[in-house]
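Sample 3 of the quickstart, ligand 4'-phosphopantetheine:
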Amino acid sequence: MNAPESEEPLLRRAVCPGSFDPITNGHLDIIARASRLYDQVYVAVMINKSKQGLFAVDERIALIEEVTAGFGNVVVESFHGLLVDFCKQRDIPAIVKGLRAVSDFDYELQMAQMNNGLSGVETLFVPTNPTYSFLSSSLVKEVAQWGGDVSHLVPEPVLTALRAKLDRS
Ligand code: PNS
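Result:
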């Protein structure tokens, strides 16, 4: 006998978590690829009260919303506490993370195993586009702070916001 058809369509959901201070082209590439693999992608911006970022969490969210709007299936939210709780509250079974290099792997594997042990959530690793394998928000901020060109490393709205923050035109 066939199972009764559910009224609600089953959405395949995933989350891309991070600090996103600010979002870079490397992050955007991973989110874009996740958005092609899943019906709905949550971008979860971690609130870290013990670490003052360059951008406030609301500013990070606004920038991510702006640069992901074209994907059509991305929801941006902040969270504090455990990522697995964020997933549980929204019925998200998968975390999608980019792996830039082998050096990322040790810590990412530990987090993936911890998260799986805590709640059963799976982590899927996507190899970063080699163009962005050296890229991090911290390096972007450092280079931009000293007047270096980061225009090829971040989306245009982020570049504008960085220049405004750092008072460079
Ligand atoms: O961009 P980042 O700073 O590398 O992202 C790290 C993040 C937010 C993915 C990670 O620190 C995280 O998941 N924090 C939430 C707290 C949590 O769940 N900790 C247990 C992980 S095993």
